[in-house]
Hints:
alpha+beta; 3 helices; 25% helix
Amino acid sequence: MNIGDTLPPLEIPVTRTLIVAGAIASRDYQDVHHDAALAQEKGSPDIFMNILTTNGLIGRYVTDHLGPHAVLRKVAIRLGAPNYPGDTMTLTGTVTAVSGNTVEIRVVGANGIGHHVSGTVTAAVPA
């Protein structure tokens, strides 16, 4: 890998099932991630994806590209626009640093209303 290399985009349909399953799997029982009426009472138009699901999807995106033996060393992300049901999040990545067997990738996840997530992933890739 070289600085400037890009990862192929990954489109992820944002479904109610994905949002709720991700929240349950990460033991995040906040009502805004599974109850549309309560989410609306709190000012959101619908339920929305939690950060732990987003974090897992970013890990999948990077390891799908780097291979099953890659080890994520650091994931530093920041959330932006919510991921609501019915939208699609498209993940893109660009290699920003390479040192020995360590690579840093800038990742962005965009949906129909803006950038849902941005950040960097540092991974060790066996030779």
